[in-house]
Design a protein that fits this description.
heterodimer, A: about 500 residues, alpha+beta, Arc Repressor Mutant, subunit A, 3 domains, nine-stranded mixed beta sheet, three-stranded antiparallel beta sheet, 17 helices, elongated, B: about 525 residues, alpha/beta, Amidase signature (AS) enzymes, 11 strands, globular, disordered C terminus
Chain lengths: ~500, ~525
């Protein structure tokens, strides 16, 4: 293996000061249909390799594909949610290329006749002053295709096929339905381009989840983003040469990878160099991209309509009935939520920016006040997610559990400090908040017997303080309450302790 | 009461005769199957119709049918009758080679729908028949496992690609066979062996389990020695299959009644002007004209019809077929099944794919893959594949306007009779011309068949007449075929195959291949 020197980069502000970035995003969404795109095999993630396969998804001689109607339905619903036109008639095409994870050596995809085309979506990104700015993303197309199998290259230093001793292939994923959503060039975002890209993918994720068509788990690959980046000297200059960065598997990586690629290309161009048209791979660890397959030559996929399949011609009445099932569009939902919850614009912006809107909404739906829900998800839980380097929804706690936790606080069973400890237990997998309270004995003690003894002890140990209270300095009770708390490990019901202290001394 | 008994030569009987004898208990399926296995043992060294025979499995299947009959279970109309399966359709547990080295050793884990329906109907599969590699050819000389010999003259080709199935029938090794027809691979072998071959309407039979050559053209169909036998087999294998998206979701035409009726009175028959004349063997044209006259005598109305675009069918076919084949055959790369060459630690996966394809594919297959790869390339697609699809539309329109005037079209099935083995192997264009008459029906997807109409006077070899019917009007093929068969057999004093020479059986007998 040859080691290459790290790529030169320039400072980000410098890069976006000198160049205008243009993005193009290709998002692959694995649908959550029970069976694959063209056969009846299960799509469940994580099964033993090659246990969810049949002649069709293994591409055995003689096998034939049959279109999964539910996948077509999902594709149409996605297209409609992205304000696309839906094709009255379209076909599948074969994309021919040789690769071992592609059992037929062609992928069934769509070429010049996508099921959905000419759509748009809006995202909001705060500018440096904190003002939300709206960006309209034009959608070129959303088309149906099948996923490939997975290769595991064993031996060799890079984990790539070159230099490997041998390769293992798992065809469980082969034939899983994919929708590829392709944007038109995203222009005019300037230095906010990486944030706009992240907001777009986050919006798609929320929209797809709302549609119920995909698990949208970026870390499992059910939502994958390829980011095309190019730079040009000024917004009116022709588009520059683009690179396509793959392997971007979190929202954070989308933003980081594009940001990095802007700084790398800016360094090349500033040095009088030429950006090479190529595929690049995002490396999460160092936060850089590395050179992959060159795309200097025109791609030759020998597309032609797949003769094994018949055209897809969704009846207009069916399309309209699917339109009627669409969930509330994200922008409309935001306006509604804003009104219902009474959040300030800043509060709402923070919720959206942190990607916690779904969680907060679900927590509110489970009975918590909007402010309390916001406090949990943007406070303690966001801190925890950042520490662990995961997305909020990957934390092992559900909105229902957060609502239960807040319910325990509201009922006085635990206080705020204990609640954080209970949350620790929930995140550690110890069970529901109530179960953690019980197992860790975290409930506030409000039993007068136990509290009374502790209060008497505190009065005896602090005669000076007790005298002050007797003399009318009621505010001195705090010291005694603190002493009781300390002796009871923070679990005393503070309000009751106060009452007991005052009962005894006034 | 059946007309076949166990003292007869069971291999000469018709499938329908065997079926009723088995159903009546006059003969057992095991006896019938054994008789055919014995016949194979005797003639296979000379004919080489089969690539794989599993006598034990066939006899076990036959015994199952016999037990079912003994138990009083209702049997299907062809239960217990042996059938030969072209080695391009899967039969779980039996090797499938498609006539290619690249699939050597591959045993499919699943049944083709055609296979499954025959098994469900109680037919007894004798084995897998020889074919041109991946069904590319008109002589079986492109088989990687050696050619099949025409039982009428062992020095001649049995047609192709389904020469094995046709020869098995003509050599009395099987009363029924399955073929597949992409450009004539059922009809041309039927024509040159004096047997019956039907290409159903595209979508009429399932392609599931058929190793694809050209998906938009391939169609499995029945092969037999009589029209009724073909119809009975057609009824078993045809009908909608949810596993094949291109399968027609329509009722199967009543082909059996049509074959029993053979009534052509009032039927309007169009003779295709463009399929005859220069390049056609005189004896072929003579027997064809005689047969048409015969149909007129039986009450059919004969008119001449022009299909001007048929002239472009062959070149269009040789762009569409290679294009689809180049993609369909991409999966034969040594990665998952069949032959693998060069996996010695010194080659990477891409090189192993290349070496496997180099070693595993024959010259004709490579020729068509290269043609198709070129025709689909960007910059050439419109000029080749795109243009060919337009011709295909024109051919389909020719059929549509012809069928607006007539009920069926007829032509010779092939321009000539069986040629000598080796005669055309170095001249692909001469070989391609064998399918001149049959290709238009594959492009348009309509039903088409070849029926024997005699021997060419100049060489004494069989001549076939092609009948073409509109899509989903397969029954009309059988009406015409049955009328011809009845009238001609009366004239000949028996089936045409009765005139075939006795096969000179080599001294070495015993053991099937």
């Amino acid at each position: 293996m040859t080691t290459t020197a790290p790529d030169l980069v320039v400072d980000y502000d410098d890069a976006v000061g000198r160049f205008d970035p243009v993005l193009g995003l290709e998002v692959h969404v694995e649908l959550n249909t029970a069976s694959k795109m063209f056969c009846g095999c299960s799509t469940a993630f994580g099964a033993e390799p090659n246990t969810q396969v049949c002649p069709t998804c293994l591409g055995l001689p003689g096998s034939l594909p049959v279109v999964n109607e539910t996948a077509v339905e999902s594709a149409i619903r996605i297209g409609l949610a992205l304000n696309c036109s839906i094709a009255r008639w379209c076909r599948f095409a074969r994309k021919n290329y040789f690769y071992p994870d592609q059992p037929k050596n062609y992928q069934i995809s769509q070429y010049d006749e996508p099921i959905a085309y000419d759509g748009w979506a809006e995202v909001e990104v705060p500018d440096d002053e904190g003002v939300l700015r709206t960006y309209r993303i034009e959608i070129e197309r959303a088309h149906m295709e099948e996923d490939t199998g997975k290769s595991l290259h064993v031996g060799g230093a890079t984990g790539r096929i070159h230099g490997a001793d041998h390769s293992l292939l798992d065809y469980n994923r082969s034939g899983v339905p994919l929708i590829e959503i392709v944007t038109r060039p995203i222009e005019g975002a300037g230095k906010y381009a990486p944030a706009v890209a992240r907001a777009y993918v986050a919006m798609l994720r929320d929209l797809l989840r709302g549609l119920g068509v995909s698990d949208v788990r970026m870390e499992q690959g059910s939502l994958r983003c390829d980011a095309n980046v190019s730079l040009r000297p000024t917004p009116d200059a022709p588009l520059g040469t683009r690179t396509e960065t793959k392997n971007v598997n979190s929202l954070r990586s989308v933003e980081r990878a594009i940001r990095y690629e802007i700084t790398r290309q800016a360094a090349v161009l500033s040095d009088g160099g030429r950006v090479k048209q190529e595929t690049r791979h995002w490396q999460e660890g160092p936060g850089t991209t590395s050179s992959g397959r060159s795309k200097e030559q025109a791609e030759e996929y020998r597309y032609f309509p797949d003769p094994d399949l018949v055209p897809v011609a969704p009846a207009p009445a069916w399309v309209e009935s699917l339109r009627a099932t669409l969930p509330e569009p994200p922008a409309k939902r935001l306006r509604r939520i804003s009104a219902e919850w009474g959040f300030s614009e800043a509060e709402l912006r923070d919720v959206v920016a942190s990607g916690a809107l779904d969680q907060v909404e679900a927590t509110v739906a489970a009975g918590t006040t909007p402010q309390a829900a916001r406090k949990w998800w943007l406070g303690e839980l966001t801190r925890r997610a950042n520490t662990d380097g995961v997305e909020l929804e990957q934390l092992p706690v559900t909105p229902d559990q957060v609502a239960e936790l807040q319910g325990l606080v509201d009922a006085g069973t635990i206080n705020d400090k204990l609640a954080r400890e209970v949350l620790e237990g929930v995140l550690a997998g110890e069970g529901s908040p109530a179960a953690v309270v019980q197992q860790r004995s975290l409930a506030v003690v409000s039993d007068d017997g136990a509290l009374g003894a502790a209060v008497d002890e505190a009065i005896a140990a602090n005669p000076g303080v007790a005298d002050k209270i007797r003399a009318g300095k009621v505010q001195a009770a705090g010291a005694l309450i603190g002493a009781v708390m300390k002796s009871m490990g923070g679990k005393a019901d503070a309000a009751r302790v106060r009452e007991l202290v005052l009962e005894r001394l006034t | 009461m059946s007309t076949v008994s166990s003292t007869d030569d069971l291999t000469r009987a018709t499938a329908s005769g065997l079926a009723s004898a088995i159903a009546a208990g006059d003969v057992s399926s095991v006896e019938v199957t054994q008789a055919h296995l014995d016949r194979m043992a005797a003639v296979e060294p000379a004919v080489h119709a089969f690539l794989h025979v599993d006598g034990e499995r066939a006899l076990a299947a036959a015994a199952t049918v016999d037990q079912a009959r003994a138990a009083g279970e209702a049997l299907g109309p062809l239960a217990g009758v042996p059938v030969a399966l072209k080695d391009v359709l899967t039969y779980a547990g039996a090797p499938t080679t498609a006539g290619s080295r690249v699939l050597e050793g591959w045993v499919p884990p699943y049944d083709a729908t055609v296979t499954r329906r025959m098994l469900d109907a109680g037919l007894v599969i004798l084995g897998k028949t020889n074919l041109d590699e991946f069904a590319m050819g008109s002589s079986t000389e492109n088989s990687a496992y050696g050619p099949t010999h025409n039982p009428w003259d062992l020095d001649r080709i049995p047609g192709g690609s389904g020469g094995g199935s046709a020869a098995a029938l003509a050599a009395f090794e099987a009363p029924l066979a399955i073929g597949t027809d992409t450009g004539g691979s059922i009809r041309q072998p039927a024509s040159v062996t004096g047997t019956v071959g039907i290409k159903p309407t595209y979508g009429g039979t399932s392609r599931y389990g058929l190793v694809a050559l050209a998906s938009s053209l391939d169609q499995p169909g029945p092969c037999a020695r009589t029209v009724l036998d073909a119809a009975l087999l057609h009824a078993v294998i045809a009908g909608h299959d949810p596993l094949d998206s291109t399968s027609a979701n329509a009722p199967v035409p009543d082909v059996v009644s049509a074959a029993r009726s053979g009534d052509v009175r009032g039927l309007k028959i169009g003779v295709v002007r463009e399929l005859g004349g220069e390049g056609y063997q005189p004896g072929v044209e003579q027997r064809f004209r005689e047969a048409v006259d015969l149909l007129a005598g039986l009450g059919a109305e004969i008119v001449e019809v022009s299909c001007p675009n048929f002239a472009y069918a062959l070149p269009a076919y040789y762009l569409i077929l290679p294009s689809e084949a180049s993609s369909n055959l991409a999966k034969f790369d040594g990665m998952r099944f069949g032959l693998r060459t060069g996996d010695d630690g010194s080659h990477d996966a891409e090189e192993v794919m290349g070496l496997t394809r180099e070693a595993g594919f024959g010259a004709e297959v490579k020729r068509r893959i290269i043609l198709g790869t070129y025709a689909l390339s960007s910059g050439y697609y419109d000029a080749y594949y795109g243009q060919a699809q337009k011709v295909r539309t024109l051919v389909t329109r020719d059929f549509a306007s012809a069928f607006a005037q007539v009920d069926v079209l007829v032509s010779p099935s092939t321009p000539g009779t069986a040629f000598k083995i080796g005669e055309k192997v170095d001249d692909p264009l001469a070989m391609y011309l064998n399918d001149l008459c049959t290709i238009p029906s594959n492009l348009a997807g309509n039903a088409s068949a070849s029926f024997p109409v005699g021997l060419a006077p100049e060489d004494g070899l069989p001549v076939g007449l092609q009948v073409m019917a509109p899509p989903l009007a397969d029954d009309r093929l059988y009406r015409v075929g049955a009328a011809l068969e009845r009238a001609l057999e009366e004239r000949w004093g028996g089936p045409l195959l009765a005139q075939a020479p006795e096969l000179v059986v080599p001294a070495v007998v015993g053991g099937t291949k």
